[in-house]
TrEMBL record:
GO terms for molecular function: oxidoreductase activity. It comes from Candidatus Kaiserbacteria bacterium CG_4_8_14_3_um_filter_38_9. It is a multi-pass membrane protein. The keyword Ribonucleoprotein does not apply. This is Hydrogenase. It is found in: Cell membrane; Membrane. InterPro entries: ComplexI-like_HydComp, ND/Mrp_TM. Residues 12-218 form the NADH:quinone oxidoreductase/Mrp antiporter transmembrane domain. The chain crosses the membrane at residues 12-29, 49-69, 81-101, 113-132, 168-189, 209-229, 250-269.
Length: 286
């Protein structure tokens, strides 16, 4: 990092483009996202939780490490504009696909693509968006663990990952349904949960420098919320299958997502001093 100012600007730009494409594939930024819906829909629930809750943030942090080096060589505008382009493209893609989603695990995959786009926008906008984006990354990781583990419970009970094959869950698996509903509210940025605040702060940061991009992102987030609501409502409140016996397949399966739910609710209302300090220090770096 100390010698990054001595790098050839052209080579630094080319290197960052390759880094962004390579690790952006792991993050799931469009158009490098194509593996994600297939992998998430076929992976066991715990693996899906790891992919969304661990792989995505780690890969994003690596991109940001190289962003620091690139910015020191060519200035911040280059990397920020690239992140904004990939970010808006990812959110747009998720909005176009999710409304007609047929598989609820693929739906969660496209939700991760959307949130990867939101994070890219946050770091691209800069300013107050950086602190909010780091916090959003944490919130998203925890919430996706809840949703994927709950999706696994649904798959065990209904033996299908198709949305039209999973109906009336509230009367069959009420506890898993409650986790699904709350997870949906959190991940879509519904007040009073923390993701609502991080999304708003990221969009406000964009309004200062890229108002059109920020406005489009807000529009597509609204479409994604409606799509999510449509599918979750059909799954939870639809007519239940008569041949499916009510009751959770194992109450112990509810413990991990419930623990993570407690964590995300706590962090939504109280940011521990040590975590605030860590995020502030990270913000100062970027």
């Amino acid at each position: 990092l100390d010698n990054s100012g001595q790098l050839d600007p052209l080579l630094a730009k080319i290197a960052f483009i390759f880094i962004l494409i390579g690790y952006g594939t792991k993050v799931g930024l469009a158009p490098m996202h194509t593996w994600k819906p297939d992998a998430y829909s076929k992976a066991p629930a715990p693996m899906g939780a790891l992919l969304a809750g661990a792989l995505l943030p780690v890969a994003f942090v690596i991109i940001l490490k190289f962003k620091i080096i690139t910015d020191a060589s060519v200035g911040a505008d280059f990397s920020q504009q690239l992140l904004i382009v990939f970010g808006l493209l990812s959110i747009t893609l998720a909005a176009l696909v999710m409304f007609n989603a047929r598989n609820y695990k693929r739906m969660l995959a496209y939700s991760s693509i959307e949130n990867a786009g939101i994070m890219a926008l946050g770091f691209g906008f800069g300013g107050i968006g950086i602190f909010a984006t780091i916090l959003h990354l944490i919130y998203h990781s925890i919430t996706k663990v809840i949703l994927f583990l709950t999706a696994g419970n649904m798959l065990l009970k209904f033996s299908s990952d198709k949305i039209n094959k999973v109906s009336g869950t509230l009367s069959i698996v009420p506890l898993s349904s409650a986790l699904l509903i709350i997870g949906f509210l959190i991940i879509t940025g519904t007040p009073p949960f923390g993701i609502f605040l991080t999304k708003m702060q990221i969009l406000l940061a964009g309004m200062q420098t890229y108002p059109v991009v920020s406005g489009l992102a807000l529009l597509f987030m609204g479409i994604i919320f409606i799509s999510f609501l449509k599918h979750i409502t059909a799954m939870v409140f639809g007519d239940s299958e008569a041949d499916i016996k009510p009751g959770e397949d194992g109450l112990w399966l509810l413990i991990p997502p419930t623990v993570f739910l407690g964590i995300i609710i706590y962090l939504s209302f109280t940011l521990p001093p040590f975590l605030k300090t860590l995020i502030t220090e990270a913000t100062n770096i970027y």
